[in-house]
Design brief:
The complex is a heterodimer of chains A (173) and B (164).
Chain A: H1 3-20, H2 24-35, E1 39-41, E2 52-53, H3 54-63, H4 67-78, E3 83-84, H5 91-101, H6 115-122, H7 147-160, H8 164-172
Parallel strand pairs in A: 2-3
Helix pairs in contact in A: 2-3, 3-4, 4-5, 4-6, 7-8
Chain B: H1 3-25, E1 34-38, H2 40-45, H3 48-53, E2 57-59, E3 61-62, E4 64-67, H4 70-82, E5 86-87, E6 102-107, E7 111-116, H5 118-128, H6 134-144, H7 146-154
Helix pairs in contact in B: 1-4, 5-6, 5-7
Classes of the chains: A mainly alpha (173), B alpha/beta (164).
Chain lengths: 173, 164
């Protein structure tokens, strides 16, 4: 193929892409990711309070901005009320989401994105103070302690202005 | 200078100045020059010419080679975080095409920031992550034309991946 033919074809595809990037599905999904500080896109306004269908997000990832696929598992985990119809995710992505929730160190890749890339976004602190990186999320534990130890723990927590859980965390870390 | 780059340089410079003042108080030598070589999408975003020609979307991770003292490295990462970015610790693994050229963006006695030239950043993306960057490369072929096509081919990339 001659260079000029390649250039003409690329220009034609770029025009199609430009048209697709104005599709309402793209403006919703990209606008949300922009609002949360996960994606920098200057041609779309931020849309912080919307819901979107994961099928639309997959379409945007396939046709407008592939980085959406890289961010999608983290969005599904951190914003479960925003991403709807999660059951429509492809099997491989569902598996990745499950592995990420379990904080598994390794997992499958998807469309050129490695598991490490997906994992990195579950640890990122978006511009939304309600979102906590997965590794910092609290999990429930219950213990039986001797009365004397329990009293000492309460006393320590009061003195340090921390919760009892934070005292144990600090001791272990 | 691009507004983002201006903020980045100014804030890193301020942190390095404080670090150097502390070292001086402790009788230590000043930090050696901190050198940042921006790579990947971030190198394109801070380039006003490319930014106006290409429709760029960027995740907030920053790919860059850092050549500096450990404390300066921490300071750079803190500044990036403050600006809403996160330094990609895998930056050293990024493939830089042979004979790549860099553009000097900022220079002082404490800090030097350069960015890989757009053509080479695009070639790196086209060769190593064609799927993730296919729309970007399509646009770029329309703008940079034959030199980009030639460079992608020379480095083992497959142009046909961008024509679907």
């Amino acid at each position: 193929m001659r260079d000029q033919d390649i250039i003409d074809k690329a220009k034609e595809l770029a025009q199609l892409h430009e048209k697709r990037s104005k599709d309402p599905r793209a403006t919703r999904v990209l606008g949300f990711l922009k609002a949360k500080g996960l994606l920098l896109v200057d041609w779309i306004p931020a849309r912080p309070s919307i819901k979107f269908n994961v099928v639309d997000a997959l379409w945007v990832g396939e046709n407008v901005e592939p980085r959406v696929l890289e961010l999608l598992p983290a969005v599904v985990i951190h914003f479960p009320k925003t991403a709807i119809n999660v059951n429509k995710l492809p099997k491989q992505l569902t598996e990745i989401v499950d592995q990420l929730k379990l904080q598994a160190p390794t997992g499958p890749s998807y469309q050129g994105f490695t598991y490490e890339m997906f994992k990195m976004w579950t640890e990122f602190k978006p511009k939304d103070k309600r979102v906590v990186p997965l590794s910092e999320k609290k999990v429930m534990r219950s213990f039986r302690l001797k009365r004397s130890v329990a009293s000492k723990l309460t006393e320590l927590a009061k003195r340090e202005h921390l919760s009892e859980g934070e005292i144990i965390e600090r001791f272990i870390q | 200078m691009n507004e983002l780059l201006g903020k980045l340089a100014q804030q890193i410079e301020a942190k390095l100045t404080v670090l150097n003042q502390e070292r001086l108080k402790d009788g230590l030598l000043s930090l050696s020059l901190a050198e940042i070589s921006l790579l990947g999408q971030f190198s394109l975003i801070v380039n006003p010419e490319v930014n106006s020609k290409l429709q760029l979307a960027n995740t907030v991770d920053v790919d860059a080679l850092l050549k500096c003292d450990w404390s300066a490295r921490t300071a750079i990462k803190e500044v990036l975080l403050g600006l809403g970015f996160v330094y990609d610790e895998h930056s050293e693994e990024i493939w830089i095409p042979p004979n790549s050229k860099f553009i000097l963006l900022y220079e002082s006695s404490n800090l030097r920031i350069e960015a890989i030239e757009p053509l080479f950043a695009l070639v790196s993306k086209a060769v190593k992550a064609p799927h993730k960057n296919r729309f970007l490369i399509q646009q770029a072929i329309g703008i940079y034309g034959s030199p980009l096509i030639r460079c992608i081919r020379q480095n083992g990339g497959n142009i046909n991946l961008f024509l679907k």
